[in-house]
Amino acid sequence: MDLTLDDAKRAARVLRDQSAADLTHAKALEIVARQLGFRDWNTASARLPAHRGISAPVPVFRSLDEARAREFYIDYLRFEIEWEHRFDYAQSVLYMRLRRDRFVLDLSEHHGDGTPGSTVWVPVGDVTALHKELHATGYDRMNPGIEADSPGGPTMEVIDPFSNTIRFCQVAT
Description:
Elements: H1 5-18, H2 25-35, H3 41-47, E1 60-62, H4 66-76, E2 80-85, E3 95-100, E4 103-108, E5 119-124, H5 127-135, E6 146-147, E7 155-159, E8 165-170
Parallel strand pairs: 1-4, 5-8
Antiparallel strand pairs: 2-3, 3-4, 6-7, 7-8
């Protein structure tokens, strides 16, 4: 897989966020550049492509309650927060980007962003392993099964607290 500049920046953010030491973003960029075989970040950013063609879409799901969203997406589905945004005024609504492996999802409390009841289809390598992992979390508001004879392959469907559906499908290879 060829890396893009965005991939390298994301790697630097993860390195910085998971470092026990006080690591600046600039230092994390330099470390990632060297790990990729470049002399420094400036060289890496000049040589790595920004992106290739059209990038993968990022679905936006409407979220109506921050605590329930975090419980479902972070605690249950094990997404990580890439970033969060609120405007600077009091009682500002939350917009956040989540990631789990290559699945990127935005959650928004902004009126008009996403429609409750939306659905996204997500290919997975092993739906049975994901099913076992989710059951092991102890989240008692969801007990999904696996539909073995779904058209795209075995599928597990989860529904978030705002009626949005994620269909995890193990695609036949």
